[in-house]
Design brief:
The complex is a heterotrimer of chains A (176), B (290) and C (764). Chain A has 176 residues and is an alpha+beta fold. Chain A contains five helices and five strands, in the order ββαβββαααα. Chain B has three domains: 5-51, Uridine Diphospho-n-acetylenolpyruvylglucosamine Reductase, domain 2 (2-Layer Sandwich), CATH 3.30.43; 56-171, Uridine Diphospho-n-acetylenolpyruvylglucosamine Reductase, domain 3 (2-Layer Sandwich), CATH 3.30.465; 178-288, Enolase-like, domain 1 (2-Layer Sandwich), CATH 3.30.390. Chain B is built from twelve helices and 14 strands. The longest helix of chain B is centred in the C-terminal third of the chain and has 25 residues, at 264-288. Classes of the chains: A alpha+beta (176), B alpha+beta (290), C alpha+beta (764).
């Protein structure tokens, strides 16, 4: 586990005050170090401390998935985690999905299939879809719908989103 | 949110010490899927959050064909679903864990947290009751085991005293021709809190019921062990009449209220429906088991 | 125009990737809550926990003392607002009520009504500070339903509210409107079949995933800037100016990317607060609503009570219809009952009708527009009653619609007769769809059909097209892009200029940078802003012709523009495309900007029709409904970008299905909203819907250069009725309440079964 805060907070068996705690994590492949108050959620840390505003706040109760990020291979609602809990974790956000300037097949298919209208839910869907395809490269429509049930979209009716995931799966299976 | 401090014990003893020290001012944290919502709503305002996820005993699934399984209180629901042992021997509890919300929620929420939150609508609780699971608690003078059906005293309140933590569930070993099932009613297909939840386990000898347990969720102030309904099946042939009789007794055991998730009348009716259905599924599974 | 004689376009009708797409799939796009500025503070709003209360005093002293708190504002910081009615966007607005909704004046009128706003150095501190504000309320009885509000001695919400009919008596009925034609009593008498039903529909919310937000910046010279997610930057500007008592020119509104609106972001909530706090603190101030605040305090759409009586001859001709409807306005007048009244019978040619509509205030949040506001409630009533009549006549429900359909020349409820419209073609598109032609087999299953109408608006838009030195173009409009419209603007520009769509950059501009543009709503954007863009691009062509003429020493009228090339007769004159001509701009007179403003009128610029077919399966033991299959047809006139037209159709259908099945506001006896979160305000998830099949019908709109009809709204209108009709065929039960949630449906099914059992027993 990473080194803990050296100010008046120490984690991992010791007392951390509500003053800021130092946290180390890997975010989108980069080692990142940040300070946050214990009461700040991971979502707040990403958006307000690290300026990664791609993850969105939609409900703060884990019911909409707009804040979804991938932690150690699994999607979670970053609004339901404290920033301090990210210590030592590997986190992927939407900002880390593309490979430099090369879009991930999911991003490409969302664009080609017109799977976004306002786009606010898109980062969360991309995270959930990526986590799905990384585990299940050839999902059925039903499996896709189940995996995405935690992400709400109000604009599209989900049709073109599901198509994009099916299309991206084909591309990824073909080695794209 | 008010200001909080965050502490991370690595052993049960450390956790107990921290929680005892802070008393009512502390709250344990596992998945956070209930706690953070409550903290933001101002429902709870503890100053100290004690993260239990780094304690080994709370994170393991230890199975023994004779003794049963010890399911750590902090095991995320998704790991229950992915555990071969759990799927094979306790399919009802496993499906309850897989229904508990979106994948995002299942990846964090734990069966232990589900119980300790003290909601009558918790999905895994009726399934645990059906299995005759016991909750093993540390922090008192000695560890104690409490049947899951006695764990929640009133909405939001459990038998845990300040300084105590739920360490693991002790679930009896699977018997031959025995299985379980969990169904819940929700208005959508995911993401809803159970309007009615029924967990059933059944042990058959031929067509005759050797043992049966029915747990009900979301139809009373606490999760319910429907004792009369369960006992009514023992020694009977599991036919439509017996199932119907059990369903009626389950309806009588339910004491639901009208709220925005359903009327009392609706919940009673659906209690009967799900009792029938889970009995049929559990029986089918039990018959197919060697 | 790049239109060949058979009407084939090069760009229009294709499906290019939207220009803002990459930013949106990489998380770079900036929505309102994503903005941060140096020294920025965070604001939070204190909201009334009471549905109805007199505010006796507000004491902010303790809160101000909390470390990190920089300022607090209440209604005392607002100027007096005039009590009159003004037109803002699609709606009529009373500035005094608007001000009262921004911050409660003397009364709290709904659970969630804003009382005060705090600015602090962190959102957590601001939130904690709210707890220290002391408000002395005198709680009054809440009035939550139109029935109670309309009673003789009802508790009065707004002491100064009057309507024409009740003279000087205080009332909760803000207005009564009526539409009549012919003799409805005679019409009903002439009917062979009459169906009479009463409907109750629950209040529902637009449900956009992005909560309201605003960042306010106030400069010492009195110039202010607001960054916010909005459907109409110009409306935000004029409404804030009204509420704050400043002139419009003092405020610049920058529309951020917007995470859904559906009509709900055509008004203001946080924007004036952000400026008030920015002024008091001298810092930028950001406010963002929580989901709970969105549901408690931002406009849902009306719940309603609708009584309808309709009659037809045995061969399926509607002879008369009588409607009484009361819509919840929320705490202040302004429900969409007028639109409900005008749309309820609009798809049909009916000689005798009378529609009475009442706008009723209740202790709920002030309603705001929600996608074809008022029409969905109305269609639930009309389209299910029509389904019953069709059944009595032994007619296919679609044939019944066709027998009564409006077409070119049919008089409208209000306004001139219909021009060329595509209602019949739209319902026929369902009739001919693979879905409708397929057989539905299996127990507990049923198929339902319904049609819908929406006016679509016109209003004002401005557009500018600039030609860059490399011959590419930018097109600038003031239309917030909520569904992909900027791509359509680029496509129209590219089509007119004969360019690749990737060479056109669409810009959504702020209120300083472009001419007045009305709201993105009313299904008007591709229609009106598209028209302005088309005209601006034509203006560019005209100017480019002049430049080509200058280059070739010809007269402008001798220059032709076809297939993206300028040409003229003459020795050595080689045709040039825009890229080549652009190189000569500096020499021939300087940069080229094409511009256009349109004012296309109010409603009736080209109505929209939709038709929806759904197959359902109902669990007979629990009342749970699964949507098995769904098809929606819509007349788009001309689909500029078909994928985004399909998107509008599918999105509206999904919202309509949510409205049909599980969405509703639950208030308790005290008037507190019980389901102020997305756990219990149940919108459809991915797992609740099938693929949504679409059929785009194209009957060109005669008054638009490209034939465009607005498409953004009408798809939400038919689904609740279609689902209700499907449930009837699956279960034998006619539902008259929305939503048709499992407890309600199960109750109705059990009663229906009991009735049938009794009848069967009696028959024995």
């Amino acid at each position: 586990m990473a080194q803990k805060a050296k100010t008046n907070g120490k984690v991992n068996g010791h007392h951390a005050h509500s003053h800021k705690t130092r946290v180390e994590a890997t975010i989108n492949g980069e080692n990142v170090e940040f300070l946050c108050e214990p009461r700040q959620s991971l979502l707040e840390v990403l958006r307000d401390v690290l300026e990664l505003t791609g993850s969105k706040e939609g409900c703060l109760t884990g019911d909409c998935g707009a804040c979804s990020v991938i932690i150690d291979g699994r999607t979670v609602c970053s609004c339901l985690m404290f920033g301090v809990e990210a210590d030592g974790k590997k986190i992927t956000t939407v900002e880390g999905l593309a490979n430099g300037a090369k879009l991930h097949p999911l991003q490409q298919k969302f664009l080609e299939d017109a799977s976004l209208q306002c786009g606010i839910c898109t980062p969360g869907f991309l995270m959930s879809a990526k986590a799905l395809l990384d585990r299940n490269p050839n999902p059925s429509e039903a499996e896709i719908r189940y995996a995405l049930a935690g992400n709400l979209c109000r604009c599209t009716g989900y049709d073109k989103i599901v198509h994009a995931v099916l299309d991206a799966a084909k591309v990824m299976q073909a080695g794209g | 949110m008010h200001e909080i401090s965050y502490e991370v014990p690595t052993t049960v003893a450390q956790a107990v010490t921290m929680l005892k020290r802070h008393g009512e001012k502390a709250r344990p944290l596992v998945g956070g899927t209930d706690l953070l919502i409550q903290l933001r709503a101002g429902v709870r305002r503890p100053e100290f959050i004690v993260d239990l996820k780094n304690i080994k005993e709370l994170r393991q699934i230890k199975f023994d064909a004779k003794k049963g399984v010890r399911l750590g209180a902090a095991v995320p629901c998704i790991e229950v679903y992915e555990s071969e042992v759990m799927r094979k021997h306790y399919p009802g509890l496993t499906e309850a864990a897989h229904l508990i919300g979106s994948l995002q929620i299942q990846n964090r929420a734990s069966v232990g947290g589900n119980l300790c939150n003290g909601s009558p609508a918790a999905d895994t609780t009726p399934a645990l009751i059906a299995l005759g699971a016991k909750a093993r608690i540390a922090g008192g003078k000695s560890a104690r085991e409490v049947p899951v059906e006695d764990f929640v005293i009133s909405p939001g309140r459990t038998v845990l005293k300040p300084g105590e933590i739920l360490v693991e569930f002790v679930i009896p070993a699977p018997k031959p021709h025995s299985s379980d099932s969990y169904l819940r009613f929700i208005p959508r297909n995911e993401m809803d809190i159970a309007v009615v939840g029924v967990g059933t386990s059944i042990t058959l000898a031929g067509d005759v019921v050797k043992a049966a347990r029915i747990g009900l969720g979301a139809v009373g102030p606490t999760p319910i062990f429907a004792t009369k309904a369960s006992e009514s099946l023992v020694g009977k042939t599991l036919d439509d009449a017996a199932i119907e009789a059990a369903a009626q007794l389950a309806i009588e055991a339910a004491t639901p209220i009208d709220d925005m998730r359903g009327t009392a009348e609706f919940r009673k009716h659906v209690t009967g429906v799900l009792t029938r259905r889970t009995l049929q599924i559990a029986a089918e599974r039990a018959r197919n088991k060697k | 125009m790049a239109e060949s004689s058979n009407g084939h376009y090069k760009v229009i009708g294709t499906r290019p990737i939207r220009h803002d797409g990459i930013d949106k799939v990489t998380g770079r796009a900036k929505y309102g809550a994503d903005y941060a500025f140096p020294g920025m503070l965070f604001g939070k709003v204190l909201r009334s926990p009471h549905a109805h209360a007199i505010i006796k005093s507000i004491n902010v002293e303790k809160a101000l003392k909390m470390p990190g708190v920089k300022a607090i504002v209440t209604a005392a910081d607002l100027p007096e607002a005039e009590d009159k009615v003004e037109q803002v966007g699609e709606a009529a607005m009373n500035p005094r009520y608007l001000s009262m909704n921004i911050l409660a004046h003397s009364k709290a009128l709904y659970d969630g009504h804003a009382i005060a706003a705090v600015a602090a150095t962190s959102p957590h501190i601001a939130e904690e500070a709210l707890r220290l504000i002391e408000v002395d309320y005198e709680v009054l009885p809440p009035v939550m339903k139109v029935d109670d509000a309309m009673k003789k001695n009802a508790t009065i919400l707004l002491p100064n509210l009057r309507n024409k009919e009740e003279g000087d008596n205080p009332t909760n009925v803000a207005s009564h409107l009526q539409f009549k034609r012919g003799d409805v009593a005679a019409g009903l008498k002439a009917a062979d079949f009459v169906v009479e039903r009463e409907f109750n529909t629950a209040m529902v919310h637009q449900g956009y995933i992005e909560p309201h937000n605003a960042v306010g910046i106030y400069n010492s010279d009195g110039q202010a800037t607001i960054y916010c997610s909005t459907q109409g930057a110009f409306d935000v500007r004029s409404m804030c100016a009204q509420v704050l008592g400043v002139s419009v020119g003092k405020i610049k509104v920058v529309p951020a990317e917007i995470g859904g609106g559906f009509g709900g972001k055509t008004t203001i909530y946080l924007e004036p607060l952000s400026l008030m706090l920015a002024k008091k603190t001298g810092h930028p101030v950001k406010l963002v609503m929580s989901r709970s605040e969105v549901l408690r305090a931002s406009g849902p759409t009306s719940g309603s009570k609708i009584k309808i009586k309709m009659g037809c001859t045995r061969d399926g001709k509607i002879t008369g219809a009588e409607v009484w409807m009361a819509y919840e306005a929320g705490a202040f007048p302004g429900s969409p009952v007028g639109a409900g009244a005008m749309t309820i019978l609009a798809p049909y040619n009916i000689d005798n009708f009378q529609v009475d509509g009442y706008d009723v205030v209740v202790n709920r949040p002030k309603t705001a527009a929600y996608r074809a506001p008022g029409a969905t409630n109305a269609a639930m009533a009309a389209e299910t009653v029509i389904d019953e009549l069709a059944e009595k006549c032994g007619m296919d429900p679609i044939d019944f619609r066709i027998a009564n359909a409006c077409k070119e020349g049919t008089p409208q409820i209000v306004g001139p007769p219909y021009k060329r419209i595509g209602f019949i073609e739209t319902v026929e598109a369902i009739k001919n769809s693979p879905h409708y032609k397929s057989e539905l087999t299996g127990k507990n299953r049923g198929r339902g059909f319904a049609a819908g109408f929406w006016f679509n608006a016109g209003m004002q838009s401005s557009a500018t097209v600039n030609i860059q030195t490399d011959g590419t173009a930018s097109v600038i409009t003031g239309s917030a892009d909520i569904g992909g419209s900027r791509a359509s603007m680029a496509m129209i520009t590219a089509e007119v200029l004969g360019m690749d769509v990737t060479d056109v950059r669409p810009v959504v501009a702020d209120t300083d940078s472009t001419g007045h543009t009305d709201v993105t709503g009313g299904s008007r954007t591709t229609f009106a802003t598209g028209m302005a863009v088309y005209n601006a691009a034509q203006d560019v062509v005209r100017q480019l012709k002049e430049r080509a003429a200058k280059t070739w020493e010809k007269k402008p009228e001798e220059v032709k523009f076809e297939d993206g090339k300028f040409s003229a007769e003459g020795e050595g004159i080689k045709p040039m495309n825009i890229k080549e001509l652009a190189k000569r701009l500096a020499r021939t007179g300087g940069p080229i900007t094409g511009r256009a403003q349109v004012s296309t009128g109010g409603i009736g610029v080209g109505p929209a029709f939709a038709a929806t077919c759904v197959d359902v399966e109902v669990d007979p033991d629990t009342g749970k409904v699964q949507i098995l299959r769904c098809t929606v047809a819509q007349d788009a006139g001309k689909a500029i970008h078909p994928s985004y037209v399909e998107g509008q159709m599918q999105g509206g259908t999904a919202q309509g299905i949510g409205w049909a099945l599980n969405e509703e506001y639950f208030y308790d006896a005290k008037g507190t909203l019980r389901n102020s979160g997305l756990l219990d305000y149940r919108m459809p998830t991915c797992l609740d819907l099938p693929m949504i099949e679409t059929a785009i019908v194209e009957i060109p709109n005669p008054i638009h250069p490209l034939g465009v009809r607005g498409v953004g709204e009408v798809s939400i209108v038919p689904p609740p009725a279609a689902v209700a009709n499907a449930i009837y065929r699956a279960t034998g039960v006619r539902m008259t309440e929305l939503p048709m949630s499992p407890p309600r449906l199960l109750k109705a099914m059990l009663e229906n079964r009991r009735t049938h059992e009794l009848q069967a027993a009696a028959a024995d």
